[in-house]
């Protein structure tokens, strides 16, 4: 019997055994995982390098902003010195800056207290761990053992 349109019969190529197929599957899966890990490493390396460059640029910008704020503060002192003595204008600008820093510090402390006062997730995780430990020991969530149940 011919299986092909031109009348030829297909050569009887040996079929791989089930063991050989599983061996090939294992090799290909291992190769795939290694390739994915190598790709992930390459991507993370390039992202880390770009992130490092970005962090350096942001740090440079922060330094420049710090100097710019200093210049603007000195300009405010000089501007107020047109109406008041220099010492008084510097004192006023300094007090205003301290008040601003105090307000920002209070807002920051309030924000930290809000975050610290909401440990619901930690409590839930602790409850989950206790439930799992109880289940492993044969206790249910109420603390009774299975033998004690009717």
UniProtKB/TrEMBL annotation:
Protein name listed in UniProt: Phage holin family protein
Membrane spanning residue stretches: 57-80, 86-109
Organism of this sequence: Xylanimonas oleitrophica
Keyword Membrane: yes
InterPro entries (alphabetical): Phage_holin_3_6
Swiss-Prot/TrEMBL keywords: Membrane, Transmembrane, Transmembrane helix
